[in-house]
Design a protein that fits this description.
Layout (H helix, E strand, L loop, with lengths): L10 E7 L4 H12 L5 E8 L5 H8 L15 H14 L4 E4 L8 H6 L4 E5 L11 H8 L3 E8 L9 E8 L6 H24 L3 E4 L2 E4 L10 E2 L7
Parallel strand pairs: 1-2, 1-3, 3-4, 6-9
Antiparallel strand pairs: 4-5, 5-6, 7-8
Helix pairs in contact: 1-6
């Protein structure tokens, strides 16, 4: 008798973008290669009609609508329209990939535990904008990126994974940003792989992987590390 196989539906991922889409490209490539397992990017949604990331999505055959924030009187009405657009695609998870709008608490709560963001600093250091300039101004020796769950508080949700790079004496904002971006492209697909595989839990405000802080895989990536 032939064995019976159960084919589970693929996880549906929506990606929110505002800019050029380098993290979007890393996510799409990771889905295509299977690094993010059994997952389809079902929509790429931007708040900026001219965002280059929309062209990336369109070239890949991914629906890429825009909800232009400038057409709304306030954050609440924009968030309501954005939420309706997202829910039209019925995603299981939402990834913010360079999405440059602060979301309302009601929006964050609607997707609690299903929406993640990547931020270009080692949170809780340097939330908000201009993180590389802040790092250089403070003279820190390590800088990096953080993937975290989105909550009502800006850049303050439970941390999933971080990647660190040294800050070099000759660094300026551009050189430091480029080195951090390379780390972002590594840690975001890994965090999403954990998420869609059901391996993440939020316990007492902290993220565990397979029930532990680290279980044979490091939640922090250092330069030169081959695998997480």
């Amino acid at each position: 008798m032939d064995p019976e196989y159960v084919f589970l539906p693929k996880s549906r991922l929506a990606v929110l973008v505002s800019g050029r889409g380098s993290n979007l490209q890393a996510i799409m490539s990771a889905c295509a290669s299977g690094q993010i397992p059994a997952t389809d990017v079902v929509a790429v949604i931007s708040n900026r009609p001219q965002a280059p990331a929309l062209a990336l999505a369109a070239a890949a055959g991914i629906p890429s609508p825009c909800v232009d924030h400038r057409r709304f009187a306030d954050r609440s009405s924009f968030d309501a329209a954005l939420r309706a657009q997202i829910d039209d695609f019925a995603p299981d998870h939402i990834a913010l990939a360079g999405f440059m709008r602060q979301l309302t608490p009601a929006f964050a709560q609607h997707y609690a535990g299903r929406m993640v963001n990547i931020h270009p600093s080692l949170l809780p250091a340097f939330p908000g904008l201009h993180t590389h300039a802040q790092a250089l101004g403070e003279g820190v020796k390590l800088h990096g990126a953080t993937v975290h769950f989105v909550t009502a508080d800006l850049d303050a949700g439970p941390i999933i994974v971080q990647g660190a790079v040294p800050v070099l004496a000759q660094d300026d904002v551009a050189s430091l940003a480029a080195r951090v971006l390379a780390v972002e492209h590594r840690i975001y697909p890994q965090a999403l792989a954990w998420l869609v595989s059901g391996r993440l839990r939020i316990e007492q405000g902290k993220v565990t992987i397979d029930g532990e802080k680290a279980s044979g895989i490091s939640p922090c990536v250092w330069p030169g590390t081959e695998d997480l």
